[in-house]
Design goal:
Layout: E1 5-8, H1 13-29, H2 42-51, H3 53-57, E2 61-68, E3 71-80, E4 89-97, H4 106-120, E5 125-131, H5 135-142, E6 146-156, E7 162-171
Parallel strand pairs: 4-5
Antiparallel strand pairs: 1-2, 2-3, 3-4, 5-7, 6-7
Helix pairs in contact: 1-2
Length: 173
């Protein structure tokens, strides 16, 4: 059964923040390098998500969620480039699946949803980055993304250890 994935409108976004915050805190606690260091709790995650509301409202950021019995089980975000010379591209950011919902194809479904929406929005090029050697790294390779470089010691994982980062692009036809 395919997961149900819903786009959050600017009006729906604030009500989803508590669930999004729990998901982000869980993902960081699980070791995912998403820009945050431990200790990192749901309150800090909620503050981060709330800071994204203006870009959700102006349409430059689109957030999708998949919900399950425990609330939001996964999310993906598409950020559209706002510079005039880059309006043909977008970036996939904060693709996350709760640790209890992994291994069921949810990340791939969320990624596909974001890719399709980007194409409908006129994007012909998508970019993303992830920790080298992570499960996400393998997902992007399997989903047809092209690696264009690895930067050593690019970012710290939640425990503070520096990790390499792989950068990817995908052309949309």
């Amino acid at each position: 059964m395919a997961p149900e994935i819903t786009r959050l409108s600017a009006e729906d976004f604030p009500a989803a923040v508590p669930d999004l915050a729990r998901l982000l805190a869980d993902t960081v606690a699980g070791g995912a390098s998403l820009g945050f260091l431990l200790p990192f709790d749901a309150q800090a995650a909620a503050r981060w998500w709330l800071a994204q509301l203006p870009s959700v409202a102006d349409g430059s950021r689109t957030v999708w969620v998949s919900t399950g019995p425990e609330g939001v089980s996964g999310t993906a975000t598409l950020v559209l480039e706002q510079k005039p010379n880059g309006r043909h591209r977008g970036e996939i950011v904060k693709l996350m699946v709760h640790r209890d919902a992994r291994g069921r194809g949810l990340a791939r479904a969320l990624l596909g949803t974001a890719e399709e929406a980007a194409a409908r929005a006129g994007c012909t090029l998508l970019l993303l980055d992830t920790e080298t050697g992570s499960a996400a790294d393998l997902l992007y390779q399997a989903a047809g993304w092209t690696g264009y470089g690895v930067v050593p010691d690019y970012a710290a994982d939640p425990a503070g250890s520096l990790r390499d980062c792989s950068f990817y692009y995908k052309r949309l036809d």
